[in-house]
Amino acid sequence: GAGVKGLAAIHTEQSFDHQRCLYRPLLPVSYEAMLGYAQRHQLSWVEDPTNQQSVALRNQIRHGLLPTMRELQPAFEQKLAQTALHCQEADALLMEMASEDWQKIHLSEHCWSLTLWQSLSWPRARQALAYRLTMLGESVTVAQWQQVKQQFYQRVSSQTHPELCLSQHKLVLADDKGYCLPLSWLITPAEQTLSLTLHTQQLVWAPWLSLALNVKQGSLTVKIKPRQGGEKVSVDGKMRSLKSWLQKTHIPHWQMAHWPVIYDEQGQLFGWPGMPLHWWRKGMECEVIFPGC
Fold first, then answer.
1. Could you report the per-residue pLDDT of 243-258, keeping only the tens digit for each?
2. CB of 203 within 8 A of CB of 211?
3. Cα(245)–Cα(227) distance, rounded to whole angstroms?
4. Dihedral angle at the C-alpha atoms of 13, 15, 20, 24, nearest 10 degrees?
5. Comparing C-alpha atoms, which of 285, 254, 267 is closest to residue 224?
6. CA 165 to CA 163: how far, in whole Å?
7. Contact at 8 Å (CB) between 265 and 223?
8. Distance CA 213, CA 200 (A)
9. In this structure, how many other beta carbons lie within 10 angstroms of the beta carbon of residue 280?
């Protein structure tokens, strides 16, 4: 089930980044050739004793299957090695295409366009997402890929916002965007109390949201809490709700649950980041910054 990458076997040269590369120069050399070289040059030979045990599957193949294959086809190992090289080239080509596709569909480091993604055939769409998930250190099972295909790519789901939890990230569907969110992003931020002066003060509320708080006059102490539900402000005699504002501005549902709300020391609502400036109570304003999402 490992596909072309699995058939490609171990590479003689493997790059991790621009500065690190792993070389395996003896990989194409046979066991017999290396043992013969060591004996001719009187070198000490060290071998893993478990290599002769038949418990591991690799040893059952080495001692049982391979000798039979050599009898049937003497050039079996050379042909198998050549096939692995072909698969390595195919894998490299797939990764190059996947990288190009990801560059076309991604909107940010953690977000991609569903419309552009769905315009690709499923094999290319899967490969593009797999490329990004591999860069993030994620491994996706066959069953999980089937879930991605049905709920994210084909949009066949009873859920309004399908989700798929991986080891370190969660895949989330919201409107016309797909998100690959670090699990740490989905932790509810803790309440914070700040003493503000006339100068603008920046606050990192969550990894995906920063605030620029601006006091118009004097100083002010505020409390910032995650949204609880039911928050409203009165504007020109009309009540404006946070829930309605979040929906109209198309804030993704995964952000809605953790959206910050700002109160004064007495617990009276000042407002929330992003709402129109004329809605704010006199005394302060707040701008929002979305870093990398």
1. 888 888 888 999 998 9
2. yes
3. 13
4. -20
5. 267
6. 7
7. yes
8. 5
9. 19
Q: Report how far Cα 121 is from the mean position of its chain's Cα atoms.
A: 21
- What pLDDT is recorded for position 186? 93
Rounded distance between C-alpha atoms, residue 254 and residue 180, angstroms: 12
- For residue 287 the two structure tokens come to 């701008």
pLDDT at residue 236, as a whole number: 75
Closest residue by Cα to residue 250 from 174, 179, 172 = 174
**Number of C-beta neighbours around residue 27 at 10 A:** 12
Q: Give the CA distances from residue 134 to residues 116, 139, 180, in Å, rounded to whole numbers and listed in that order.
A: 20, 7, 12
Distance (Å, whole) CA 33 – CA 14:
24
Q: What share of the chain is helix, strand, coil (3-state, %, to 5)?
A: 40, 25, 35
Side-chain-side CA neighbours of 165 within 13 Å: the count stands at 4
* DSSP E strand stretches across the chain: 13-15, 21-23, 106-108, 111-113, 163-165, 169-174, 177-182, 192-196, 201-206, 209-215, 220-226, 232-235, 238-241, 260-264, 269-271, 284-289
DSSP 91: H
The residue behind tokens 């295409």 is 97
Give the contacts of 286 (CB within 8 A, at least 6 positions apart): 211, 212, 213, 214, 262, 271, 272, 273, 274, 280
Q: How far is CA 241 from CA 3, 153, 256, 271, in A?
A: 51, 34, 13, 10
Six token digits for residue 289: 């910054």
What percent of the chain shows pLDDT beyond 70? 97
pTM above 0.90, yes or no: no
Q: How far apart are CA 17 and CA 26, in angstroms?
A: 22
Give the number of other Cβ atoms within 10 Å of residue 37's Cβ: 12
